[in-house]
Specification:
Helicase, Ruva Protein, domain 3, four-stranded parallel sheet, Dna Topoisomerase Vi A Subunit, Chain: A, domain 2, alpha/beta, 200 residues, 6 strands, two-stranded antiparallel sheet, 10% strand
């Protein structure tokens, strides 16, 4: 790392570098941006970080992020609570929600099973999901984990836990994106598209 000879600036750059996807150059740009803020703007930024860190926690039902007891989706009486869409991160829930095609509720795992990264089932919110099935009349659980080795392993692990409970477990279809060309798809994506084909 470059030496700035100004300890607070070096510390600021180091803090930004800890963020995922932020390299040294971007960290430097962010640090200089923060230094150019007025005192009031800098305080507002610092307060926003502290407030988010203090007030945001897991929803009591779905484990999504919220500042209330329940997130807005779980608190909405018009949502179909018989269908739960299981996702890895809050960002994934937002992506599904942005389609405006899903009226069920979510369950956020906060990761995927990954032995290489020391993430096992106990590090995720799987126990909370199982508890929900005991208390709610759930008819279907949609596994919307990412189409990766870890996401597939997580979906398979959870489906094995849920099947004996008499709950229908489905997996998001994936394959060729709309508007995509077959020649640019990799073998794994093509294979999954063939597996998930539907009658027309």
């Amino acid at each position: 790392m470059a030496q700035y000879n100004v300890a607070p600036l070096e510390n600021l750059v180091e803090q930004f570098e800890r963020m995922p996807g932020i390299g040294n150059k971007t960290a430097q740009r962010l640090a200089y941006y923060v230094l150019n803020l007025s005192k009031t703007q800098a305080e507002e930024l610092a307060n926003a970080v502290l407030e988010a860190h203090t007030k945001i926690h897991y929803c009591g039902e779905c484990c999504n992020l919220t500042d209330k007891e329940l997130c807005p989706i779980c608190a909405n009486p018009t949502r179909d609570k018989s269908v739960i869409c299981v996702v890895e991160t809050p960002r994934d829930a937002t992506a599904v929600e942005n389609t405006r095609e899903f009226n069920g509720v979510y369950h956020v795992l906060h990761g995927a099973i990954s032995p290489l990264n020391d993430i096992g089932p106990d590090n995720l919110t799987i126990k909370q999901l199982i508890a929900r099935l005991g208390g709610e009349a759930v008819t279907e659980v949609i596994m919307a984990t990412n189409p990766t080795v870890e996401g597939d392993a997580t979906a398979l692990y959870i489906s094995k836990l849920l099947k004996p409970m008499g709950v229908k477990v489905t997996r998001l279809a994936y394959g060729i994106p709309v508007g995509g060309d077959l020649e640019y798809a990799d073998e794994y994506t093509l294979a999954k598209a063939l597996e998930g084909r539907n009658e027309i």
